[in-house]
Amino acid sequence: MLLKDKTLVVTGGNSGIGEAIVLAAAAEGANVVIDYVAHPEETESLIDRVEAAGGRAVGIEADVSRSDDLHAMVQKAVDTFGRLDVLVNNAGIETRTSLLETTEADFEKVMAINMKSAFFGSQAAAKQFISQGDGGLVINISSVHEDWPMPGNIAYCVSKGGIRMLTRTAGVELGEHGIRMVNVAPGAVSTPINASTEADPEKMKRLDAAIPLGRMAQSEEIADVVVFLASRGAGYMTSTTVTVDGGISQGSVGL
Ligand code: BGC
């Protein structure tokens, strides 16, 4: 088992890529802390699935856009499982609006859930790692759009660009403590964030044609990379991004 007895906090862990990360990590022997907002049902049923497979997981109500709640998630890991090994900043939203359309409220929400949460989550985790004294790892679920424009989804792109620089800079700052920072940049993945695209056959045809591998990813294909990054084999990786996109960001148009 690649993650035996390691403890992970996974923000946004009860749906989409986050849920797949929880299940994949637990299957490799990890303990997992999963947040929920107001409705614990999905998190509770996910915990049941983890436990049925022999793993250990615990839920906590948290608003990931609040630094205090991120600290509470880290503390929950320590109180329940004795320590924290990996924080996965996975929670994310998008508005699918252009610069001209995006309201101030939309912008603030995207920044708070995508970027502020990754920033203060990393801070909370790093403080815990330093007090434990034996390193640690933050994995940010970013996007190919940390570096590649997606017109009509600009606030999301800006937030992910910020996450890219968070990882590069914090990785340099924290290296002396043995703390690693790594981004995973998925392309198009079959999750609730892409539900409207998946419901539109024309859009799906265009999307599949733009992906060299010819199809969207399943969440498990992202989760397996996260498990690898949290395992011993990735121990020399920091301040960098791992792209998992079926080739979409190469931007080939073909003829
Ligand atoms: C976005 C999706 C988009 C995909 C590929 C993701 O980061 O959330 O809406 O389909 O990138 O462009």
What this model shows, in words?
This protein is 45% helix and 15% strand. The chain has 255 residues and is of the alpha/beta class. Helix 3 packs parallel to helix 4 (104-132) and helix 4 packs parallel to helix 5 (154-174).
Oligomeric organization of the protein chains:
single chain
Question: What ligands can be seen in this structure?
Answer: beta-D-glucopyranose
Mean pLDDT: 96
Helix content class: 40-55%
Shape: globular
Gyration radius (Cα, Å) is 17 Å
Beta content: 15-25%
Q: How do the strands of the widest beta sheet line up side by side?
A: 3-2-1-4-5-6-7
C-alpha termini separation: 46 Å
The helix-and-strand class reads alpha/beta
Which stretches are low in confidence, meaning pLDDT under 50 for 5 or more residues running?
A: none
Number of helices: 8
Q: Secondary-structure element sequence?
A: EHEHEHEHEHEHHHE
Number of strands: 7
Sheet with the most strands, sense and barrel status: 7 strands, parallel
Describe, in short, the structure shown:
It is built from 8 helices and 7 strands, in the order E-H-E-H-E-H-E-H-E-H-E-H-H-H-E.
